[in-house]
Amino acid sequence: MTPTPQSALAAADATSSSALPPTASRYAALGQPFHQPVQPTPLPEPALLHFNTAVADTLGLADVGALLGPLSGNAPWPGYAPLASVYAGHQFGVFVPQLGDGRALMIAELHDREGRRQELQLKGAGRTPYSRGADGRAVLRSSIREYLCSEAMHAVGIATTRCLSLVGSPQPVVRETMETAAVVCRVAPSFVRFGHFEFFYHRGLHEHLPALADHVIAEHFPHLLEIAEPTQRYAAWLREVVARTALMAAQWQGVGFCHGVMNTDNFSILGLTIDYGPFGFLDAFQWDHICNHSDDGGRYAYGRQPQIAHWNCGRLLQAAVPLLGEDMDAAVELARDIYHGYGPAFSDTAARLWADKLGLKDIREGDAELMERLLALMHDSHCDFTNSFRKLAQIPSTAPSGDTGLRNDVLDIAAWDAWVADYQARLQSEGNTDDAARAAAMNRVNPKYVLRNHLAQAAIAKAEAGDMGEIDVLMKLLSRPYDEQPDMAAYAAPPPEEMRHIEVSCSS
Ligand code: AMP
Ligand code: MG
Questions:
Q1: What is the 124 CA–ligand 1 centroid distance (Å)?
Q2: Residue with the nearest Cα to atom 12 of ligand 1?
Q3: Most buried among 10, 145, 377, 437, using CB within 10 Å?
Q4: Which DSSP string do the residues of 212-281 spell out, in sequence order?
Q5: 83, 103, 294: which to mutate for ligand 1, most atoms within 8 A of CB?
Q6: Looking at ligand 1, which atom is closest to the CA of residue 277?
Q7: 275 alpha carbon to ligand 2 midpoint, in Å?
Q8: Do the beta carbons of residue 289 and residue 209 sit within 8 Å?
Q9: Domain check: are 35 and 131 in the same one?
Q10: Same domain, 323 and 259
Q11: pLDDT (0 to 100) of residue 24
Q12: 471 belongs to a structural domain
């Protein structure tokens, strides 16, 4: 919703209903050395450019406009002292021992309407002890991308951080060009990353690992508290983290999402998609598509994402070895076993997910090959990823296939016809011949609308000129990604030629 401009008002009334009592379960209660108190840097002339009514509702925040002070970093959230946490991480495969919230500040911990814990974090609220010489700010461009994409991901059922608000300011920020500052308020049950554990492991501060793990388990995996023996409890927890990470990676592949910076400091301990930077949704399908202009080697190319997510689990498990018992050999062996759980977890999830995308009820031998042949055809002909799966839903289960549109998109018609014949045979083999029902089911898992780069770019250009209308349009459109929304069909089209190669880098 685009709000009318509001001045900063007292926030107490708007927040009191959902404030979390100051119990030991709060992240803040972990204290040092996990985080430090840091005041946000005031943001000049803040304006609430947009806020997310769905998230505000979830949090029971009646009047987001009245929260402009806390949401811009210009006033405290009642009853909470802001803090920045320390972490490390493997960036592009190289360990960086000192990272942390360089421009993010936790400003509140709340309970949502369902009683779940939610943390609120400002991104771009100024320098912290972890800023490493950078300015602590975020630009409007990247803030809009994060704001829109996190909501688009949520709507396609991928666990993610979300955004409550987007606040802009005329304050200049230097990137490749001069831009202006913005602050998003991100919301998640936890912002703990793999890198938080890596920090304490690689510094030799192993004595702090149990406190962090215990906090995460107590707050976010409470069913594991039943396991009394610590090693077994930590192992069970790590198995769940690995499974959630595998699920996230499989879901990214299924929706054609490229994260762009899969560093371990950008990997959530809850398996949430976090840190939207140079991400991109596939337009033309290419296995080796690289969405991050700064990723020269293609480390984070689309086709490599599942194995990188696995590698990242390895980095987490390395850092967690001290939690897995006093006998080092046995602990490493257990970590290795958990690490090897990624493969089956990923394969099982991916098999079901791709079967759903194809409209198949069962999972059978040969399905993976059928899928790979389809993707090879799409790759060779640069077919639009999102639209291809919508078109697939139109293929009838019995010959003749008729022209579904996809046949016009591929270059190798003979290979296409052979594939369709095999697909139809596969459908018939499981009695999957109610074509309307299959199409409806496929359209419930294959989105029609995703946040294509050129759509985000158009919203950014308008916002930079002072018009938030396109952000509003995209928020509404992307909250119903599976619905036909016929009057919005232009938003499902691949980018026009001149918008096909928008370069998105780490600069944000
Ligand atoms: P990212 O590439 O955004 O995941 O950031 C990697 C690390 O750099 C994190 O520790 C960030 O907090 C930090 N960082 C990125 N941009 C800035 C900035 N403009 N000011 C301060 N720290 C930053
Ligand atoms: Mg990051």
A1: 9
A2: 102
A3: 145
A4: HHHHHHHHH-GGGGG--SHHHHHHHHHHHHHHHHHHHHHHHHHHTEE-S---GGGBBTT--B---SS-EE
A5: 103
A6: 3
A7: 5
A8: no
A9: yes
A10: yes
A11: 43
A12: no
pLDDT reading at 2 higher than 60: no
Q: Which of 57, 63, 265, 367 is catalytic?
A: 265
486 found inside a domain = no
Residues with CB under 6 A from ligand 1: 99-103, 130-131, 134-137, 261, 266, 275, 277, 506
Closest ligand to 125 CA?
Answer: 1
Q: Are 122 and 33 within one domain?
A: yes
Ligand nearest the Cα atom of residue 277: 1
Establish if 496 belongs to a structural domain.
no
Report the Cα–Cα distance between both ends of the chain, in Å, rounded. Answer: 24
Same domain? For 115 and 241 the reply is no
- Residue 483 forms part of a structural domain: no
The residue behind tokens 């918008």 is 499
Where in the sequence is the domain holding 175, given as residue range(s)? 6-191
The closest alpha carbon to 17, from 68, 94, 79, 71, belongs to 79
Please check whether residues 299 and 375 belong to one and the same domain: no
What is the model's pLDDT at position 404?
73
pLDDT band (50, 70, 90) for residue 20 = low
Q: 435, 351, 445: which is closest to 390 by C-alpha?
A: 445
pLDDT confidence band for 480 (50 / 70 / 90): very high
Minimal CA–CA distance to 217: which of 226, 204, 205, 206?
Answer: 226
In whole angstroms, what is the distance from residue 424 CA to residue 402 CA? 12
Ligand nearest to the CA of 267: 2
Q: Indicate the pTM of the whole model.
A: 0.95
| pLDDT given at position 82 | 97
Cα 100 to averaged position of ligand 1 atoms, centre (Å): 8
* Burial of residue 350, with CB atoms counted within 10 A of its CB: 0-12 exposed, 13-18 middle, 19 or more buried: buried
CA distance 84 to 104: 7
Q: Round the average pLDDT of the chain to a whole number and report it.
A: 94
Tens digits of residue pLDDT in 319-361: 999 999 999 999 999 999 999 999 999 999 999 999 999 999 9
Span 64-120, pLDDT tens digits: 989 999 999 999 999 999 999 999 999 999 999 999 999 999 999 999 999 999 999
Q: Which of 316, 350, 384 is the last residue of a domain?
A: 350
* 397: nearest Cα among 367, 431, 374, 446: 431
Active site residue 265: yes
Helix H or strand E segment including 104: strand 104-111
